[in-house]
Structure formats: C-alpha cells, structure tokens
Amino acid sequence: MQLNITQAPRDFWGGLIYLLVGAAAVFIAADYERGSLLRMGPGYVPAVLGYALCGVGLISVVRSFLRHGDRIMPFAVKAMVLVTVAVVAFGVLARGAGLVPAVIVLVVVSAWGSQMSRPLPVALLALGSAVASWLLFTKGLGVPLQAFGAWFGF
Predict the structure, then answer these.
(1) Which pLDDT does position 120 carry in this prediction?
(2) Is 94's pLDDT higher than 50?
(3) Dist. CA 25–CA 45, nearest whole Å
(4) What is the C-alpha to C-alpha distance for residues 95 and 110, in angstroms, rounded to an integer?
(5) Given its phi and psi angles, is residue 72 left (phi above 0), alpha (psi -120 to 50 degrees) or beta?
(6) Which of 99, 53, 123 is closest to 45 using CA atoms?
(7) Of residues 111 and 31, which shows the higher confidence score?
(8) 72, HSE (Cβ side, Cα atoms, 13 Å)
(9) Closest residue by Cα to residue 60 from 6, 8, 15
(10) Collapsed DSSP state (helix, strand, coil) of residue 74
(11) Nearest to 96 by CA among 107, 84, 105, 108
(12) How many angstroms separate the CA atoms of 16 and 63, rounded?
C-alpha cells in the first residue's frame, strides 16, 4: 500500500525527516547557554544547525506540493545494516586498534552496502580516508587517538 500525500513523496518525507531532526536539535539545545555570534555557548551551533535543518525541511515539504517528483523506492536494508555495523565497529575499534584501522574498517564495511563499489577504489578511499583522518584529527586538531592502538602494541 502506497501512501500518496503529495506529487513528490520523496521530497515530502525527506523534508519531514529534516524538520523532525532539526526540531529535536533545537529542543535539546534549549537547555544549553547559546551566547552570541562572537561568544558562542555550547548550545549555539546545535540551535543554529537545528533551525537550518528545519528551514531546509520546510522548503522541501512545501516544494513537494508544487512539483512532481520521484516515488519512494524500497528501503535498502542491507546498506542500512552495513552502515550501522560500520559505525559501531568504528566506535569499538577506535581506542583499541587505533584511528587508522578503525577508519579503514568503517569505509570497507560501509562500501559493502553498495552494489556499485569496487575493490580497488574502496581500498584507495579507505587508505586515503585513514591517512587524512589521522593527519587532520590527531596531528592537526590534537585529538588523543593513536594511529595504531594498544592492540598492535603501540
């Protein structure tokens, strides 16, 4: 059974999701001090991003009534499960195995969810992402994560 509310159901439901996530961010950030643009508090960025998401969602919902669009395709359950597993694996591996192996596992497991992924581009993306993450977060921003963790004897 297909529920057709608008001419563009994909835009409608996508916009509704943006509205809900944005509203949740604004609601959660309500308890934090916002501060000002020059002196931002911990609630400033979540609130601004939440309002921006709400704006994008509202535009998408309104647009769904004004133009024809694509129908909603069936859920890609395999991709959703693999991306979730990849994120959980990253969280488990980051401290023990280190940032580089955790990012490599994240990219490779996520790529299994796509029918279009090929081994060589995935391997290059995984290695490039791991090196870039290590350089950016560990060296650039000083995040206390080892490139290779205690599981590798470092």
Answers:
(1) 96
(2) yes
(3) 10
(4) 20
(5) beta
(6) 53
(7) 111
(8) 17
(9) 15
(10) coil
(11) 105
(12) 12
* Token representation of residue 15: 């916009």
Which of 4, 6, 120, 125 lies closest to 60, judged by CA? Answer: 6
The residue whose two tokens read 């909603």 is 72
pLDDT for the residue 93: 95
Domain boundaries, the chain: 9-66, 77-152
Question: What's residue 85's pLDDT?
Answer: 97
Other beta carbons within 10 Å of 126: 20
Q: Is 82:114 a contact under the CB 8 Å cutoff?
A: no
Q: Has residue 107 got a pLDDT over 60?
A: yes
Residue 10: C-alpha distances to residues 17, 98, 107 (Å): 11, 39, 27
Exposed, middle or buried by CB within 10 Å (0-12, 13-18, 19+), for 2?
exposed
Q: What is the residue whose two structure tokens read 């090196």?
A: 131
Residue 51, both tokens:
């309002």
